[in-house]
Amino acid sequence: MKITFETNQIYLRKSKVKRPQMRSKIYLSLLTMGLALFAACGGGVQQPDASEFEAFYEQFHSDPAYQMAHINFPLEGLPSDADAETIDSGNFHWDAEDWVTQRPFNFANSEFSRELLSFGDDLVIEKIIHRSGEYGTIRRFAKMGSEWYLIYYAGMNRIE
């Protein structure tokens, strides 16, 4: 598996936006702009070591004990099929007791595609999007010290 990185902006859109959801969109936009600005600071954008991240990524998906040790619980994120109230609250967290081990995914033989975006040399955002473009999931990985960790997980949700 070869991993390549791109630096882009990320936009999440929910259908039928109601006023309470606007706050979430504003926070997400501010976070995205902040990450982009952070990555642009310092004269040049550094990319993570692809071979180091790839080794972490493969072990993360093949070793359940390693996976649990490399998740920052309670893990910020969203459940699958999140409702507007959960999204607006902004305080959903995954607990270790409720975590379902994530397994490797064969993108070549599925209806999903994957995009890896890097911000600096210590943050990677993975977007997994259905071919229709209507559903997707997001994971954020951060390098803390010398180790990579999953720091955010949004389950499969509707996007546009």
Describe the structure in your own words:
The protein is of the alpha+beta class. The chain has helices at 19-40, 50-62, 64-69, 84-89, and strands at residues 71-78, 93-94, 112-118, 123-130, 135-144, 147-158. It has a single domain, classed as Nuclear Transport Factor 2, Chain: A, CATH 3.10.450. The protein is 29% helix and 29% strand. A hairpin with a 4-residue loop joins strand 4 and strand 5 (135-144). The radius of gyration is 16 Å and the shape is globular. The protein starts with 18 loop residues before the first helix and ends with a strand. The model is unreliable at 7-22 (pLDDT under 50).
Rg to the nearest angstrom? 16 Å
Largest sheet: 6 strands, mixed
Mean pLDDT level: 81
Shape: globular
Number of domains: 1
Helix content: 25-40%
Side-by-side strand order of the widest sheet:
2-1-6-5-4-3
Number of helical runs? 4
Secondary structure: number of strands: 6
Order of helices and strands: HHHEHEEEEE
What proportion of the residues form beta strands (DSSP E)? 25-35%
CATH class: Alpha Beta
Low-confidence stretches: 7-22
The CATH architecture can be named as: Roll
Separation, N- and C-terminal Cα atoms: 28 Å
Q: Structural class given helices, strands, pairing?
A: alpha+beta
CATH topology term: Nuclear Transport Factor 2, Chain: A
